[in-house]
Amino acid sequence: MAVRRRSCSGRTNGDRVPGGAGKSSLAIGMAICVATNRELLGEKIRGGGNLKALVINGEDSTEEIRRRVYAFCLAHGIAERDLNGLTVAGADDAWVQRISFLTTNERGMSAFNQGGLDALQLALAALHPDVIVLDPLVSFCAGGNMNDNAVMSSVMRKLKETAARCKSAVLIVHHTRKGGDAGNVETISGAAAITNLARRAIMPVTPTVEEAISWEFFLPNVYSISNW
Question: Partners of 53 in the beta sheet?
Fold first, then answer.
């Protein structure tokens, strides 16, 4: 996974987004580390063994997420039997399609959608994950305006309440606005509440050519499709 990280906090506004910086790959890797209790990405894992992680992706299929999990496991020598604590669900899952935190009311204004949160909580009650990954946030807020600070404040607070009640950590994958400075939290898209109400913001940064070469990322056939 060729990506650097910067950990920071701060405010933001803006809207659209470049992809491909490694946000989803990083989030999947962090979930696998928790589920296998292996500190492979330089982050301390607390809570002992038998931890569970739930990755919910509203953009890609479940099969695609499994491919990414497999690629990470190949790179780090993780066997399939070690992934019992990991659950993934993609955009093709009918349950995932019910998760929507925003709606538009009769006055055409954005409002918090309790039904979408209820759908998420059904899975949490069944799986009891220690870490929940929501990727990307825009997929779960498509029913309203993510630039509305008041309504996004409600979304973030409800997610924080859910995390506290379920004794889980919630990792939200979110975009930066197009043309934004890589690694700068000020470029995160949407309402300021998204970052202001987060405990921590981690900004993936695409590596330089020199860094990629030093990590041997360009070695041929390392991640060959024929090996999948």
Answer: 86, 131
Rounded distance between C-alpha atoms, residue 125 and residue 38, angstroms: 25
What is the three-class DSSP state of 49? coil
Identity of the amino acid at 38: R
Instruction: State how far the alpha carbon of 210 is from the alpha carbons of 130, 218, 222, 224, in Å.
Output: 37, 11, 18, 22
**Do residues 65 and 145 touch, judged by C-beta distance below 8 A?**
no
* Cα(163)–Cα(140) distance, integer angstroms: 17
Q: Which residue has the higher pLDDT, 68 or 14?
A: 68
> Taking a C-beta distance cutoff of 8 angstroms, is the pair 16, 219 a contact?
no
What is the tens place of the pLDDT at every residue in 103-143?
998 888 999 999 999 999 998 999 999 999 999 999 999 99
pTM: 0.80
